[in-house]
Amino acid sequence: MEEKTMLLSDLLQHIAYTCVQGQTDRPVRAVIYDSRKVCAGCLFICIKGANFDGHAFAAEAAQKGAAVLVVSEDVPAVAESDVTVIRVADTRYAMAFISAAWFGNPAQKLKTIGITGTKGKTTSTYLVKSILEHAGYRVGLIGTIEIIIGDTHIHASNTTPESYLLQEYFAQMVEAGIEIVVMEVSSQALMLHRTQGFVFDYGIFTNLEADHIGPNEHADFADYLRCKALLFKQCRIGIGNGDDRHFAQVMEGHTCTLESFGLGENCDIRAEHLALIHKPGELGVSFDVCFGNAQGFAVEVPTPGRFSVYNALTAIAICRHFEVAEEAIRKALLQAHVKGRIEMVKVSDDFTLLIDYAHNAMALESLLTTLKEYEPHRLVCLFGCGGNRSRSRRFEMGEVSGRLADLTVITSDNPRFEEPLDIIADIRTGIARTDGRYVEICDRKEAIRYVIAHGEPGDIIVLAGKGHEDYQEIKGVKYPMDERELIRDILENR
């Protein structure tokens, strides 16, 4: 395979910079932002991270033969070397444009859909993919669980990859004949400029609640909101949840055409006549979709509650721009399933069991409140909490489950470097603030065996916290553990 080279001047076309040292007409053989991967002839971008600063490796990179350094501060240690030094205001911002140029600006050859919000991003991306594929489009996906390029599934490390990786995935999608990419856009990604270097065709806002606030995340809620709002200065058409109380603030200063969806009368696309569906082992919701004063159509979604309506509306609002037929939308919504997001697992006609990723108090409260609307005989909630994380989360989740569930089964999640029984004790402290009934079963498989064996007709049983995860992390080691496989094994050995 022929080695790729590009002129530095071509890589810098769309960014403001100062050439501090050297020439811009030199060839570049690779774009690197990890100091461990520096090679001769490469362009090395000095990124400031939470724990490392790439500027500290500038001299080492020059010694290894890097052709170019992209910096945001002085690097006097390389003054005598042959390396070209390009100074920019923000190296992360510059990296996004340099990466886009390196891969030939692949986003321009795709229709790009970016979905941001506190909740609903993952589910909405899969719904959009399902609907558009039913309509005959070839669709790629980038999100929290995985990256999908044709038949290739790549495990995701971040909700939104670094800009270089993102552009590389776009390039692979173009190569594979993908026409549309739908992706989750986290507030962190917007804050760190991972999605710069191109303009989204469609930017979507699902909802906003206080989350991701703390060290190495957002300083406060105002900063969180500000970062979410950046998407609507970086897309052509903005589509948002008009019912969310932060809708106006998120859209303030937008540079895109704006549309809204929701249950409210002022929304461009509305859901009306909501009805809960409760079948053996399955929960769902049906509603009518209305477009202004135009005639709408009825849809059914095989996941429960109001948030399922919003997820479906998100997908419908996007897919109408691709002229998808009503029948394709109906079929796709019925068939789309997202691993670990209100995922129904059929174990009995007598009761319903589902797996969900709810791993904080806000998500658990939303889930359990929704399920209570189905008036179960009992609402049973099985969960644990992750080790080496905030202890307050354990108290809060214990209190939520104790207040809303008829029975809580406290078990282990990812204990990491903590003792599982210590984590369980903290959850118990939270439940003790309520009069909720609970049992403690440390081994998660045994806990699942217990809820299945003791399921009563009409029960709704939730396995919360693990969702799509297929491992359990103990003392620094990730052991295989997929709740679906645990359930299968339990049923086979009953």
Short description, anyone?
The protein is of the alpha/beta class and 494 residues long. 30% of the residues lie in helices and 26% in strands.
What key phrases describe this protein's structure?
single chain; 494 residues; alpha/beta; Udp-n-acetylmuramoylalanyl-d-glutamate--2,6- Diaminopimelate Ligase, Chain: A, domain 1; UDP-N-acetylmuramoyl-L-alanine:D-glutamate ligase; Protein-Tyrosine Phosphatase, Chain A; 3 domains; eleven-stranded mixed sheet; 15 helices; 30% helix
Please give the share of residues in helix.
25-40%
CATH-derived architecture of the largest domain: 3-Layer(aba) Sandwich
Give the beta-strand count.
26
The domain count comes to 3
Q: β content, as a range?
A: 25-35%
Task: Provide an overview of this structure.
This protein has 494 residues and is an alpha/beta fold. It folds into three domains: 97 residues, 3-Layer(aba) Sandwich (Udp-n-acetylmuramoylalanyl-d-glutamate--2,6- Diaminopimelate Ligase, Chain: A, domain 1), CATH 3.40.1390.10; 230 residues, UDP-N-acetylmuramoyl-L-alanine:D-glutamate ligase (3-Layer(aba) Sandwich); 150 residues, Alpha-Beta Complex (Protein-Tyrosine Phosphatase, Chain A). The strands form five sheets. The chain has an eleven-stranded mixed beta sheet with strand order 11-10-9-12-8-13-14-15-16-17-18, with helices on both faces. A six-stranded mixed beta sheet has the order 19-20-24-21-22-23, sandwiched between helices. α3 packs parallel to α5 and α12 packs across α13.
